[in-house]
Amino acid sequence: MRSELTEIERQIAYSGRLDLGAGYPIGLAPDWVWSLEPCGRSSLVPGQLEEAAQFALALPSSQASLLSTFTGSIALQRAMIAANNLQSENFSSVRVLTTDPCIDIILGMAREITGTSAVRVKIGLQSKFSDKDCSAVCSEIESLSDESVGLIVVITSPENPTGAYWSRSQLKEIAEKCKFTNSILIVDHCFLMAGIHGESDVCAIWDVVDLDASIIGIWDTGKILHLDGSKVGFLIAKNATIVRELEDALSIIQFGVADYTSTWFSRILIDPRFPDLIRDLRRVSRQNQALLRSWAQSQEISIHNAEGGAFEVIKLGNSRGGNVGTVPFSVFTSESFEANGWQRVALARQTDVFAQFLRQLGQDGKT
Question: Mean pLDDT across the stretch 166-178?
Answer without folding.
Answer: 96
